[in-house]
Amino acid sequence: MIAARRASLVPAPGLLRAIGGAVIGLALGAGLAAFGLQAELGQILALGYIFALLGFLLGIGAFRFWLTWAAGREVDVAEEHAAHGRAGDWRRYFRFTTDHKVIGVQYLVSAFVLFFIAGTAAMLMRFELAQPGIATSKDIYNTVMSTHGAMMITVALVSIIGGLGNYLVPLMVGARDMAFPKANALSYWMLPLAIVLVASNPLLGGFDSGWTAYPPLSQQANLGQQAYLMAFVTVGVSSILSAINFLVTVFRMRAPGMSLMRMPIFVWALTVTAALALIATSVVAMAFTMLLFDRLLGTSFFRASRGGDVILFQHLFWFYSHPAVYIMALPGLGAILEIVPVFARKPLFAYPLAVLMFVSIGVMSFMVWAHHMFVSGMAEFFHIPIMLTTELISVPTGIVFLAALGTIWMGRIQFKVPMLWVFGFLWAFLIGGITGVFLADVPTDITLSDTYFVVAHFHYTIVGGTIFGLFAGTYYWFPKITGRMYDETLGRLHFWWFTIAFNATFIPMFWLGIEGMRRRVADYPAGFGLVNLFISFAALNIALSVVVFAFNMVRSWRRGPLAAPNPWRAQTLEWQVASPPPIENFDQIPIVTDTPYQYGSPGAAPGSLGAAPARRLRP
Amino acid sequence: MLLGVKLGILSEVMLFGALFAAYFVIRGESSEWPPVAGLERPELLLPGLNTALLVSSSATMQMAVRAARGGDRSRILRWLGVTLILGGIFILVQGYEFATNGFGLDAGVFGSTFYILTGFHGAHVLAGLGLMAIVTNRARLGLVSAEHHTAVEATSYYWHFVDAVWLFLFSTLYLL
Fold this sequence. Notes:
The structure holds two protein chains of two kinds.
Chain A: H1 2-9, H2 15-36, H3 41-60, H4 64-71, H5 77-83, H6 100-129, H7 138-173, H8 181-189, H9 191-199, H10 217-220, H11 223-252, H12 265-296, H13 310-344, H14 351-364, H15 383-408, H16 417-440, H17 442-448, H18 452-482, H19 488-515, H20 529-559, E1 591-592, E2 607-608
Helix pairs in contact in A: 2-3, 3-11, 6-7, 6-8, 6-20, 7-11, 7-12, 7-13, 7-18, 8-11, 9-11, 11-12, 12-13, 12-14, 13-15, 13-16, 13-18, 14-15, 15-16, 16-18, 16-19, 18-19, 19-20
Chain B: H1 2-29, H2 45-70, H3 73-100, H4 108-140, H5 150-175
Helix pairs in contact in B: 1-4, 1-5, 2-3, 2-5, 3-4, 4-5
C-alpha cells in the first residue's frame, strides 16, 4: 500500500521527473557550494549547474540501463522496449527513447525551435540597428547579439547531423539503429538544460563577448558569460559522444554489400563531419574549461598579468572553431549532393572524387585556423603559410561544388521545392566562397577585419551552407519522416521569399563593411542610416518567410496528403521502406548490389530488400 | 564497442593535447621555469616510484585481460584486484604530493599548469578505477566469460591510455 502510494508520488522516468531532478540537483549543488564551501557566486552557479545536469539526466532515465549493468543486474525487458519507442505515441518524443528516428526528430524539432528563438534575437538586433543612435541600450544589444550567435552556432552544429543524420544514417547504410542507441539518446538529452542555461543568460546579467568568448573580456564579464561557457562545454561533450556513435555506425553497421564507395554521399559527408567533431571538439572544450578555471579556481592560463597568454586562447579556440565551420557546412553540402541527382535524374557527377574531396577538406581544415587571427598580434611568420593553406582549401570545396553543377548539367531537372533550395544553396555558397578569398588574403583581411564584410561573408557561408541545406533536406525527407507531403505552393513561397530577403539583407552588408562599419557595435555613423533601415526591413522579411515554413510544416504533418514510400523515385535505401519507416527499419537487412545513383538506366535499383541472394539487379 | 572506445580515446588524446600545447606555449614564453621566484619544482623520488607503480599496473591489467580471454574467474579477480590496489596507491600518493608540494593552484601559470594537467590525469585515473571496480564486481558475479569480456578489454584500453598520458606528463612536468 505504502509502496504503491510512493510510486505514484514520484513520477516515472520522464520529463517531469527530469525537471524535478534538475531542480533538486540545482538546490543541492548550489546549497553545497554556498553553505558547505563558502563559495563565490560563480562557483555556486557552476556546482549548481553540474548537479542540475546530473539530476536532469538521472530523472529522464539516461543512466538507468548503465546503472543496472554496472550493478550486474538483469535489465527489465519491458522497460528496454519502452525506451526503444515501441510504446509509440507522441509521448515518446518527450522521453529517453533510444530509437534513432525518435532522436532524429527530437534534434530536428529542437533545432528549429532554437532557430526561431535565435532568429527573434536577430530581429531585436535589426530593430536597434535600423536607425543610428541607441534605441534600447548598449548592454542589451551586446547580450542579444551574443545570444543570437551562441544559439545559431548550436543550430548550425546540430541541426543537420543531429536531426537528419540520426534519422537517416542507419536507414541509408541499412542498419536497424545507431551503434550505441543509449549513448545517442544521452547526447540529445544533454542539450535541453544547456540551452535553458544559455537562454537564461540575460537573467544572470547577460554577456557581451560574442560566441568567441575571447579573454580578457570573458574572464572579467559577469555570470551570464559563465553560463555561456558552461553550456558550450556541455554541447561539446554531447557532440563528441554523438560523433563516436556516427563513426562506429558507419564503420561497423553497414548492410552486406554496402562498401564504402557505395555509401550515399550524405553519409560520407556526415562521416567526415563526425571525424572533425571527434578530433577538434575536445580542444575547445578544454580551452573553455581553462577559461572557467581562470574565472573560478584562480588559475592563470590566460591572465597575461601572471604569465598567462591571451592569444593562446584564440589558437585553441580556432583550432576547433575553424574545423567547426566545416562541421556546419559539410552536412549541408552532403544533403545537397544527395538531392541533386534525384531531381536532375542523373547519376551523381564524379562521386569518388567528391568523396576524396570531402576527406581532404576534413584533413585541411586543421591547417587553416589562424586566418581568424591575422590582426590578433600572433607570430608574424605564421601569416603567409596560413594564408596559403586557406586559399588551398577552396580547391576541394570548389570540386565538391562542381560535382553538384556537373550533376545538374544537361539533366532533366524537376523544379520541386528541395531542388529550388539546392539552387539557392549554390548561389549563396558561391558568394560566401568568393568573398572568403578577401578574408584569406592578409592585406585585405587586415582592412576588412571586424567590419560588416565579415558578417556578410559568414552569413553567406553558414546560412548558405547549413540553413539552405537544412531547408532542402527537411523538404526532401519530410515525406519519409512524417509519412505526409508538405504543401508545394507554400514551400515555393517560403523559398522565394526567404532567398530574396536573405540576399537583400546581406549583400548591402558587404558594401557597409568596405565602407568601414564595425560589427558587434550597437551604433554607427549617421551616414549608414538608410542602408541599415533597408537591411532591417529585408531581415524582417526573412523572419516572415520562416513563419510560412513553420505553418507549412505543422499543418502538413497533421493533415497533409499521405505520401507514397518513394515519392521522388529515389534510389537510396531509406526510400525503399514504408513512410515513416517501421521500428527497426527493415524486416530483413537489405543486400546492396550497386551505388545508389543509377538514374537514367531503366529498372535500376540499389539492392534488394528481400532475402534474395545477392545478384546484380541492373542488367 | 571497442572501436567506440578507441575513438573516445582519440578524443581524449586531443584533450590532453590541448593541455600540453598550453603548457609548452606558456613555458616557452617565460625566461625561467618556474617563473615565480622562490618556487621549487617538485621532488623526483616519490613521483618516480609512483610512475613505476602505474606502469606495472598496466602490466597487471593486461594479465587480467588474458585471464578474461581464458574465462578464468579467480585469476581475473586476482589481477583486477592487484591493478585496483596499484591504481589506488597511485592516487593516494598523488594526493599526498598535492598536499605537500608547497605551492598552490594560484601560484601563477606554474601552479595552474602543474595542477590542472596532473589533476585532469588524476580524474581520469579515478574514472578508470571506477570502471575497474564495476568490471571486478561483474566478474565476481560470474558475468565475465571467455565469450563476454568486452568490458574488461575496454577498461584495459582506457587504463593503458591513462598510463601512457602519465608517462608524457611525468617527463614534461618533472623531468624536462
